[in-house]
Every structure is written in structure tokens, then in C-alpha cells.
UniProtKB/TrEMBL annotation, chains A, B:
GO terms for biological process: transmembrane transport. This is TRAP-T mannitol/chloroaromatic compound transport system, periplasmic component-like protein. GO terms for molecular function: metal ion binding. GO terms for cellular component: tripartite ATP-independent periplasmic transporter complex. Substrate binds at Q136, R157, E194, E220. Keywords: Metal-binding, Signal. It holds the Pfam family DctP. It comes from Ramlibacter tataouinensis (strain ATCC BAA-407 / DSM 14655 / LMG 21543 / TTB310). The keyword Signal applies. Gene3D superfamilies: Bacterial extracellular solute-binding protein, family 7, Periplasmic binding protein-like II.
Length: 341, 341
């Protein structure tokens, strides 16, 4: 945990269960940044100890842990919990969804935080945005993917909810926590695996067992991470402590995206230098995946009223964002990316 | 100012001078968000009153105000002060520089904050990132710009440092605070004006006097705003108060970009509906502006050791960022922007 010297004097102590392994300073580190900021902002009177996946509970049990009060807080990727309700996925990332900046905009200044909190109240949780990975890579494949057909029968470790789209395309999604993927890929239990992007993927060593590195991770154009807080623990806080939780989480939110952006370019260079073969997904696969995703969202809107309410707002927002970003943002970025810098 | 009911009880009171007019809830609003968070995080024991441009001092005098201690803090666009030293501009935006996310990355997790603070120490100031506008639009023109030649003699209100590039291309840059641009454009004192983007520009009414709306704002791919704090005022804070200033500024940083992203799409639709004519800058103008910008940066690196030190790091960072963003981020965004959503 992040227990410091002043721990003994803290008036308030929380435990936070992360869904991530301690080895990933980026995604696991977000919770540590949160904890450090809470300590600093409270003058050491409010302490949050951070526990890696498996330390207090398995990676995918942290929502249960917060809901039943076993821990006061969790740091996780919301889409892991789509089995409880598909609406969880919208709080993290859905295929062909918002990018990192758009997701922050929906959360902080659109209706995102309000709608997701209304949903999370069913689980006795309050949510705070706490990091984003940016657009992820599409993962490591043992063999090349030349068309959508090559997904047939592919045993692919893929993050949570995206498996539902992969399934519709004939793939066989595998939901495996970060810390256990390498072994499965090495053993051949799975054919392919995506995790996050160059920096984390390099740490987990996937390039050693699967040479082809695909992009873009169309199912995670910007995975937002959440801090979940048990409702009773939150209600017990004073106004100042509530403000501390919110601000510490916002700090970790911006700092985590920054960390990914700083670390990914170097890692990508090293991976390519070590033989990783970068490949864009074929156009027919992208088109089919988009079509299947939209069909899935239509189905869910008919079947799940929670999904329908949140997705309707999210989809409108996504449409407006892409309209706006295509002008000055995209034109600027495209020009810069085509220069010799 | 933002003085609340509890003002009388605050143990610590700061005054903050903004360079922006109160009418702009986005860019002026960032300082108000900062102030609200400081109050909440301190339980009302630390108050920051926010003063619009002209209230305590003119828009472009706020660095002097912080340096000489007339106010404890300012919220401004760093490039306004390039006349003191061109290095200021790097802290805000330079032509063909970093985009919003890349600028946050350089600041929070690259060498940006450390290098800029080292530079700002000459002005007895400590800096905190406090908002970003995103990639700005290229501004409002009374007549169409068909090639780089059309910049010859153009009296163009353009943000701070970018005027140095415009000058090299034959234009006549005008540095005018936000609150005074409309009158100059209406009177015909200037031929063209850029301010920020659809939402702010619509508020200031530029579309009423100049029909052509250009993109991208290649001189502001992501203008980062700064909170400047007087060094002595900062040193007098306790550790908890220092953490509060940092976290409140980080909160305003992420919230301000979110506000722009939420508000710009609607404003763009309204402007186009009211007759604004969207135009991309011609390719020869972009190429020439890029060339002139790089030549300017080379000159400055020879003449100004402060610039040389900071720019060397910034340029390396920009190169790596554009390498990385061109893969998964750009491919994802381009696909999304080309869909019917």
C-alpha cells in the first residue's frame, strides 16, 4: 500500500482496491497519485492505502467490494463490469466511442458524470473520473489479420465489453486480468491479446510471443478509468473532504493521460526496434466492426433501459464532437503529423 | 470578484488579476473555477478574489502585477508577454507547436513545468497549468484568403507571439486584448481578427463584421493558460495550501478544456447557420507559415539562451508526440470523423 510515516496520525483512513497489477506505474499508479494528493490536501489527516489486484480481492471483484463496503474505494476500468449491466461500459469505453478528450468533456461539462452517477447509485457507488489511457493499440497477434474473416475462431484477450462485438464477428473473446495475459499468450491458450498501448504492453512482454501489433484499438478510443467510492463512506465525509476526493481524482485524471502520452512514444520506438511489426486493421474489418457495434447498441437500447438513457445522450454528444473535431483539431494534427519534425 | 459570504472569515486572501473579460465564462471562468476549488478545499480559510481585465490593471500588465506583488496571482495567456522574452510564448502556444493533450503531457510529465518554472523564476513567479482552449480557429477575414500572398499588408489581430511569423509573411499583426477586438474590426482599423474558437468568437460577435472563418489556427494548436503566483506569496503558504493551489489549478485545467469542447460544436453550428463561411487555409500558406516559423525558432535559438534551452526540449518532445499520435490516435479519430454518426 501507500502507507506513509504519518499513517498513524490520520483521522480518516480508507482502503482502495485497484484492478491493476503494481508493476504498471501508469494505470495502477493513478490510484497512488490520487492517494498522495489526498494526503497532501488534507495535511495527512486523510489517508488512502492502495492495494493491487489480488491483494484484498481479485481484479474483477472490486465493484462488489465497494458496493458491500469491504473497501471504501476502488480504481478500475468500468467496462470490466458489463456483465452486471452493459451500461458500465459507457463509463469506460465502448467500441467506436469518444476519444480521451471528448470523454473528459462529456464527463466534466456534458451530462456524463450526472448520468453515470445516477446509474452507479444502484450499486451504492459515487464515481470520479480518474485517468485515461488515450486511444489504445489494437493488440498483439501471432499471425497477420488480412480481413474481417481472419477473426473467425480467433481466441482474443480483449477488454471487457468489446468482446460482445468481437463475438458478433466470429471471434472468441477472453476476459483476463492484465497480470495473467502473458502466460495465456505464451502457452497458446489464446491467439491474440490486447492490453493498452506500447508502454504497458512492453512491460508485460507481449511482443516476445506475438509479432504483429495492430492499430487502432477501435474498441477503446479513450478508456476512462474511474474511482468508485462507497456511497456511505462518501456521505460520511465533510464538505472539505469531499472536495479533496474530487480534486485529487481530477489531478490523477490529467496526470495519468500525461504519463501515457510521455511514455508511449519511447516504448513504441523500442518495440519496433526489437522487431514488432506495426499493422493497421484492414478497412473491411473496421467497417464491419463499426456496423456490428451500432447494431449491438440498437439492440441494447431496446432491451436495457439504463443503457438506452445513457447511450442516447452519449451518442448525441459523440456526433457533435466529431463534427467539431474534424475541422480545426484534425486539420492541425494532420498537418503536424505530416511534417519532418 | 468572486467574494463569497464567508470572505470575512478567511484566514488568507489573495487577489487574482485575469487578462480576460468577464463575459467569457470559458477563459475568464477558469480563474473562477480555480477560486471556487481553493475555497472548497480549504474549508473557506483561503479565498482568491478574481478580477477581470482592466479592473485592477490592464490585460497585458498582469505579469508586472504579479512580479511586483500588486496581486498574488494572475490568470493569462503566457504568449502575451513575448515582448519581455520570447520564451514566455512556449508556455502558452507557438505556431506549429503542441496540441492540447501534448501540451499537458509536456507540462505534467515531460520537462515542461520544470523548465518553464526555471524561466519564470526570473520574474519572481511560479506557474501552474490552468486551462487549455484546444486548437483554435484561424480567425475572421473580411475577404477570402486564396494564397499566402493575400496576407501582404493584412492588418490582423493575432494572439501575441504569432505576430512574429505573420510579419515575416508580410502581414501587419495587431496585439489587442479580447475585449477590444470587435470595435477595431467593426471600425475597419483592422482587416481580420482571430480570438479563440466558435463559442467565444460568437459571444464577441466577429461574424457580424467579417464573413470568412478560417481553420486551423496553426499558431495555436492548443493554447495553455497559466496561473502565475508571486514567489513570495507562494513561499508563505504551508504545504497543505501549496497542494491546494496545485490541485485547484489542475481541476480548472481539465474543466476548462472540457467546457470549450462542450460549447464549441453548438456555437459552430449556429455560426454556420447564421452565414459564417468556413474555409481551410490554403496549402501554400500553411507550408510557408511552417517554414517561417521554423526559421524564426532557429534565429531565436541563436539569439536567446532562455529560448534555446526550453525550445530544444519542447521540439524533441513535439517530434516524439507526432510520431506516436499518427498511429492509433489519428487513425481512430479519422475513422470516427468519416462515419455518419
Amino acid at each position: 500500500g501507500a502507507a506513509p510515516a504519518v499513517h498513524a496520525q490520520a483521522a480518516l483512513r480508507w482502503r482502495l482496491a485497484s484492478s491493476f497489477p503494481r508493476s504498471l506505474d501508469t494505470i495502477y499508479g493513478a490510484a497512488e497519485v490520487f492517494s498522495r494528493k489526498v494526503r497532501a490536501l488534507s495535511g495527512g489527516r486523510f489517508e488512502v492505502s492502495v492495494h493491487a489486484a489480488g491483494e484484498l480481492m481479485p481484479a474483477f471483484d472490486v465493484v462488489d467490494g465497494v458496493q458491500n463496503g469491504a473497501v471504501e474505494a476502488a480504481h478500475t476500468a468500468p467496462y470490466y463490469f458489463f456483465g452486471k449491466d452493459e451500461t458500465f461500459a459507457i463509463g469506460g469505453a465502448i467500441p467506436f466511442g469518444l476519444n480521451s478528450r471528448q470523454m473528459s468533456a462529456w464527463t466534466y461539462e456534458g451530462n456524463g458524470l450526472r448520468l453515470m452517477r445516477e446509474f452507479y447509485a444502484r450499486y451504492q457507488m459515487v464515481s470520479f473520473p480518474c485517468g485515461n489511457t488515450g486511444a489504445q493499440m489494437g493488440g498483439w497477434m501471432r499471425r497477420e489479420i488480412r480481413s474481417a474473416r481472419d477473426l473467425q475462431g480467433l481466441k482474443f484477450r480483449i477488454g471487457g465489453f468489446a468482446g460482445k462485438v468481437l463475438e458478433r464477428m466470429g471471434g472468441v473473446p477472453q476476459n483476463i486480468p492484465g497480470g495473467e495475459i502473458y502466460q495465456a499468450l505464451e502457452k497458446g491458450t489464446i491467439d491474440a491479446a490486447e492490453w493498452i498501448g506500447p508502454y504497458d504492453d512492453q512491460k508485460l512482454g507481449f511482443n516476445k510471443v506475438a509479432p504483429f501489433y495492430y492499430y487502432p484499438g477501435w474498441w477503446e478510443g479513450g478508456l476512462q478509468l474511474d474511482l468508485y467510492v462507497n456511497q456511505k463512506a462518501y456521505d460520511a465525509l465533510g464538505a472539505e473532504q469531499k472536495a479533496i476526493v474530487e480534486a485529487a481524482s481530477a489531478y490523477a485524471h490529467v496526470e495519468t493521460q500525461a504519463k501515457y502520452d510521455v511514455k508511449n512514444p519511447q516504448a513504441l520506438k523500442q518495440l519496433v526496434g526489437a522487431g514488432a511489426r506495426l499493422r493497421p486493421f484492414p478497412a473491411d474489418l473496421m467497417t464491419e466492426a463499426f456496423k456490428q457495434s451500432m447494431a449491438l447498441y440498437d439492440e441494447l437500447s431496446r432491451k436495457n433501459p439504463n443503457w438506452r438513457k445513457v447511450y442516447a445522450d452519449y451518442a448525441r454528444f459523440r456526433s457533435d464532437q466529431n463534427l467539431w473535431f474534424r475541422f480545426t483539431e484534425a486539420t492541425f494534427d494532420r498537418f503536424m503529423q505530416s511534417q519532418r519534425l
